Amino acid sequence: MPRTGRYLYGLVRAPEDMDFGCIGLEHDGRPGRVYTLRVESLGAVVSEFAGREKVLPLRRNLDPHHRVIREVMKTTTIVPMTFGHVARSRNDVAKTLRSNREAIGAQLDRVDGKVEMDLKVNWDVDNIFEYFVGADAELRAYRDQVFGRSCAPSKAEKIELGRTFEERRNREREEQTDRVTEVFHPCTSDMKVNPPKGEKVVMDLAFLVDRGGLKPFEECVYQVAGTFSTQYLFDYSGPWAPFAFVDVALDLQSAEA
Predict the structure, then answer these.
(1) CA distance 169 to 200
(2) Per-residue DSSP letters for 122-134?
(3) Into how many domains does the chain fold?
(4) Range(s) of the domain holding residue 73
């Protein structure tokens, strides 16, 4: 008979057993029952799953993974696991909790009563290069110098123009990120600056916020957004589980990822 493993969604403080219902990843043709496996006051939020089965990052698996974490967040603080952790047995889960007790406790202490809020700021312009050319006289003069002659620019000149543009954009990103993060210090416990992904991304920020401090956080967003021109688009989201602020390297020796 195939071994029944345990899929791990996250870690919580659990002075008593908790049951979140049949909302987990599919097992034996139906959504798995999600509950806590406890060692003293620490608990792993789990559901049954085929112990030797690889968890594919498909929507049918990703959706319940995140649904469970959102549901647990309604009642308690959770240190969320990244997608795909399966321990081979409940005993392996218990061993993991015991061997990582201090690290788990430290992470739970750090995010206790807090949630993650994300803020992305984009340049709301059609052409990011032309936007900077219009705003920066030095870059505009260099562009005109390279393309304003009768002969076509060399490859080296194009590369140098691109490098100058990237330097100007990165400097603008740094300056505006410093300007924004300064506003949020009073209403957040911690923040993380993620590398911008996309040519029009100004900044990608994550904030650790008290559950009761969401309104002051939102007020900060509107306050700082009001100081920017219409070429900047502010978009915030959350509350989420604090993925950006936890880092527990669990010793899952018996896990299938």
Answers:
(1) 10
(2) EE--S-HHHHHHH
(3) 2
(4) 4-112
